[in-house]
Amino acid sequence: xxxxxxxxxxxxxxxxxxxxxxxxxxxxxxxxxxxxxxxxxxxxxxxxxxxxxxxxxxxxxxxxxxxxxxxxxxxxxxxxxxxxxxxxxxxxxxxxxxxxxxxxxxxxxxxxxxxxxxxxxxxxxxxxxxxxxxxxxxxxxxxxxxxxxxxxxxxxxxxxxxxxxxxxxxxxxxxxxxxxxxxxxxxxxxxxxxxxxxxxxxxxxxxxxxxxxxxxxxxxxxxxxxxxxxxxxxxxxxxxxxxxxxxxxxxxxxxxxxxxxxxxxxxxxxxxxxxxxxxxxxxxxxxxxxxxxxxxxxxxxxxxxxxxxxxxxxxxxxxxxxxxxxxxxxxxxxxxxxxxxxxxxxxxxxxx
Amino acid sequence: xxxxxxxxxxxxxxxxxxxxxxxxxxxxxxxxxxxxxxxxxxxxxxxxxxxxxxxxxxxxxxxxxxxxxxxxxxxxxxxxxxxxxxxxxxxxxxxxxxxxxxxxxxxxxxxxxxxxxxxxxxxxxxxxxxxxxxxxxxxxxxxxxxxxxxxxxxxxxxxxxxxxxxxxxxxxxxxxxxxxxxxxxxxxxxxxxxxxxxxxxxxxxxxxxxxxxxxxxxxxxxxxxxxxxxxxxxxxxxxxxxxxxxxxxxxxxxxxxxxxxxxxxxxxxxxxxxxxxxxxxxxxxxxxxxxxxxxxxxxxxxxxxxxxxxxxxxxxxxxxxxxxxxxxxxxxxxxxxxxxxxx
Amino acid sequence: xxxxxxxxxxxxxxxxxxxxxxxxxxxxxxxxxxxxxxxxxxxxxxxxxxxxxxxxxxxxxxxxxxxxxxxxxxxxxxxxxxxxxxxxxxxxxxxxxxxxxxxxxxxxxxxxxxxxxxxxxxxxxxxxxxxxxxxxxxxxxxxxxxxxxxxxxxxxxxxxxxxxxxxxxxxxxxxxxxxxxxxxxxxxxxxxxxxxxxxxxxxxxxxxxxxxxxxxxxxxxxxxxxxxxxxxxxxxxxxxxxxxxxxxxxxxxxxxxxxxxxxxxxxxxxxxxxxxxxxxxxxxxxxxxxxxxxxxxxxxxxxxxxxxxxxxxxxxxxxxxxxxxxxxxxxxxxxxxxxxxxxxxxxxxxxxxxxxxxxxxxxxxxxxxxxxxxxxxxxxxxxxxxxxxxxxxxxxxxxxxxxxxxxxxxxxxxxxxxxxxxxxxxxxxxxxxxxxxxxxxxxxxxxxxxxxxxxxxxxxxxxxxxxxxxxxxxxxxxxxxxxxxxxxxxxxxxxxxxxxxxxxxxxxxxxxxxxxxxxxxxxxxxxxxxxx
Lengths: 352, 343, 532
Fold this sequence. Notes:
The complex is a heterotrimer of chains A (352), B (343) and C (532).
Chain A: E1 2-13, E2 16-27, E3 31-35, H1 42-50, E4 59-62, E5 65-69, E6 72-73, E7 81-84, H2 96-101, H3 106-109, H4 112-121, H5 138-150, E8 156-160, H6 168-185, E9 189-193, H7 196-202, E10 205-210, E11 213-218, H8 220-225, H9 230-236, E12 239-247, E13 250-253, E14 256-259, E15 268-274, E16 279-283, E17 293-302, E18 306-313, E19 320-326, E20 336-341, E21 346-349
Parallel strand pairs in A: 3-9, 3-10, 7-8, 8-9
Antiparallel strand pairs in A: 1-2, 1-4, 4-5, 5-6, 10-11, 12-13, 12-15, 13-14, 15-21, 16-20, 17-18, 17-20, 18-19
Chain B: H1 2-25, E1 37-42, H2 46-60, E2 63-68, H3 71-81, E3 89-91, H4 95-103, H5 112-116, E4 130-142, E5 167-169, H6 174-187, H7 189-202, E6 203-205, H8 209-218, E7 223-227, H9 228-236, E8 245-248, E9 259-266, H10 273-284, H11 286-294, H12 330-340
Parallel strand pairs in B: 1-2, 1-3, 5-6, 5-7
Antiparallel strand pairs in B: 3-9, 4-7, 4-8, 4-9
Helix pairs in contact in B: 2-11, 3-4, 6-7, 6-12
Chain C: E1 4-5, H1 32-45, H2 47-59, H3 61-68, H4 71-104, H5 110-118, H6 125-135, H7 141-153, H8 155-167, H9 170-178, H10 183-212, H11 215-219, H12 225-236, H13 240-264, H14 289-318, H15 328-359, H16 363-377, H17 380-394, H18 402-426, H19 430-438, H20 443-471, H21 475-480, H22 488-497, H23 501-529
């Protein structure tokens, strides 16, 4: 059963078209993440679903109830959607308990048990119930915001970049707490983020948005391993892209002959996509008959737990690629290394 | 926040309560509630008219509500309000303002009984209003700064260059404007305009005759042109604004001996004409005029044969010029003063 | 040539793109009711200006010219402009120095001085004048007028400058010092420009109050346009001459506003980058402490000592009998009622305009907002004249009614409520509205549950400011009050005009007492706005 159905949503701001036709389905009880660069329109889509903006045209249905469409408009306060804003948007004049109870019917608002239960859900100390929002940390505020959104048992919860305003350390722990809470309740969730690792780890379904359109929708693994185009590929993870020529199911590129995922219908030139974890690095130039290609390290950025290694490949094109390598045994600058490809690459034929 | 919520609830309730009491405290309807109240547009001194009002209310039971202002301000206000004016009675300090309203056709005829109480020289022949009090122009001077020999013989002398910076008056007030209108009548427009031009350079303007008196007393001025009762009143109290001063009466039918008539009239638009006429009759009657004789205003009574306060120089000895009040043109004087740059 | 593409953004502290000040920046269509209310308010605000223009046209070009181009007008212009120049300069110098002493030095008893410097706000200017005239009856001329008005108005510059100084980021000054600038150059080049807006706003307030000032100047016989208009009014009610003078006065006000807007410029002095601003280290006065204390004491003596001492003396002189005057209690009650009425009405009326200006910003809402400032820039006497004329000609039932008077008050003091409300509404971001709606509150309910409670302090502040203004308002009340209604201000004025200074003293004291809590409140507000 589809908890959310979005069809043909367009939205403009002045003369700029922000959403250019969005279609999306979310299955009940699952989590979907919409990921895309700043300005691609993902927050607008969220606001359209919540009812804060009107699409022109487009339709939105929540469950089996149409809330937006030709001749239909349900105002936001009647849609039964939970909404967690980027900065929490807690009511400063109310306590934590009052904030959480805000969306509850009158009779339940005073119920201490409910409030405590909700606080526990988001992994917060129930003693915080009497505090005011400005006495909480950023992460705590986000969790309270989530508890507040979930309290009235909405059919769908929308999260608008909820972790981007937090410091790095808080981000992971808050994210984990939020994911756990939502999973426990089995709440259908739609998360919007620009952080691809967040999207991949958080969601059951990932939708990549670019310039007002959803370029690909699918499970995280599929998005990562089988991105539909180079831009999507680059957005969801590190990518090594090399020019290559395809013949059959093998592509010739600067890293040698690399098997590709999809046998192409016709041979030709194009691009080969590899993920850095597919490229094995070993020290020493190796012999000519060893598998892989050789190269020289031209630069190294050391981050402690890992390092970014820039390697100039031996060979006619003298391509330079960048790889991540663990911090242990990171090769030094100028060292000769050998690179070998594991697994299959993805092939993108050249345009035209 | 709980307390904020309470505040938000209490404030409108409190405001409503305030409004409810407010409707009582401030009279929205201008005193025309109930048949036992009349509205007097009063340009006379508030204390004097209040004394009249209190005595009248005591005698007749009719309440009197005063709206206080200045002669011409109220005269023009009545003109502008026209037939819907809330005023029942108009009292002034000087007659030109009465003429303004009379010429606009806004006065009702004064009852004969009232007119009979006041000698003919203290009322216009038209019978549209009646004199209620009188005051004499005087030159008050600081005894330490001027000897009797140095006093001006005529009001016109003050235009002389030797008087530059030494005298003052209250030119924005209707009192002084009445004096100038008398000068206009007696000496002609040209001479008056010339005198006003010199006044601009010679005289210090003050706000109110009391201020002039105080300044003369303090020695800031050698002398000032005011009405007699300011001096008399101060002398009767603490003398703190007049102990260094004396009065000089010009006499000789000089413009400076002008006796100005305070007037009272009933508005045609009045909705309580009978009570208004009753009030005017009271003011010009024995009881009302005796307020002038025995009270603290020190103006001259004009009606019912009541004599002036013993402390005052009798009216008959003032040598006042004979002037037809109807000819005193207030607005023209204001224009002349505006042209001279005084206003 | 790099052939590697890395993901667009590593998780890092990301500034909120496209959301300046918390708002979405998109001015959605405003609710029709709010728009209508705002338009009605703006139209009312234009009545005084319209009156002046209409009367000018009706007077005819020849007569208008004759009335405008005469020596008296030149004299008034000289007096008025001279006073404005002296007082604004004096207020700025005094206000900035006082603010600097209190906020940036180690002057002893700084908290006390902070309160004392703001206290002149509680004393109406005409009471300050009354105090001076009582002690030095011969005070007069430009010097006297400038002394009295500077003493009365410098807090208008002091308060905003002090608030800004408190909030200033010392990092800017420290950077300038590290680049080799001397302290004086830092003061002139870094601190003063940041104070520009506050100084400009304060100077504008001083100028506008001066142009509208009647009582204080009349008492020392310093003639300006407003005193001349009042005199003309007393002579002709609302004749052509009065209107012409009013036209000049209004032009001067508009000129002042324009100058202030131009001087304000487009510079932005907000803090860039993240991180909290630390409070600045105070400058050590050392040997200058003595003179600074002396100067501060002198200013307080001149500004509040003189009026307080005079009032006390007159009260002692007049004795108990003063307090049993029959008009005292009715005047007090009327003032309280009128003030309360006006405070509530003004706050209610300012709300739609402020709401539009903040939440649905567009050129239309800006125009509406500017209209409301127009009426307040005009002196009370011009507004009152306009209302009297309009009421007599077109709205008889409200002529001489409390409603008309309170409406005039609302127009005159609308910006005071607006300024507070705007600040308050800006603290209530639309995100809260959306969060409340998502939680099931209809727009109406969320106004009561979220918006109004959050706006309550701002509403209160605005209402309090209006109340204080009404307590000390003189000229409009003189012209518009219903027959029989007396306020503390009008009673004070009629007593002091009759040189009954003792009789005026109880009214002066009551006005000061009523204004004090509000001055205190203003001081606390400006502290709070600076975040301390």
